[in-house]
Design a protein that fits this description.
Elements lengths: L1 H38 L2 H20 L4
Helix pairs in contact: 1-2
Length: about 60
């Protein structure tokens, strides 16, 4: 029983860490998207949007949004 509780606690910590990493990735991609918009770089904008969509989907799966 104690092992099950420890595993559950570890899983929650890993999930919490992953959410934080995803939020940092999202911030970085938003900054990159802002730069691409200023530069009028359509290719870079589309890449950022795709990455942001992937991040958003993962955050939704983790129920962080």
């Amino acid at each position: 029983m104690k092992q099950v509780m420890n595993q559950a606690m570890k899983a929650k910590e890993v999930e919490k860490h992953r959410k934080a990493v995803l939020r940092m990735e999202m911030d970085y991609e938003l900054a990159t998207l802002f730069e691409a918009i200023k530069e009028e770089n359509d290719q870079k904008k589309n890449q950022c949007k795709q990455k942001l969509e992937r991040i958003r989907n993962e955050l939704v799966k983790l129920k962080a949004l």
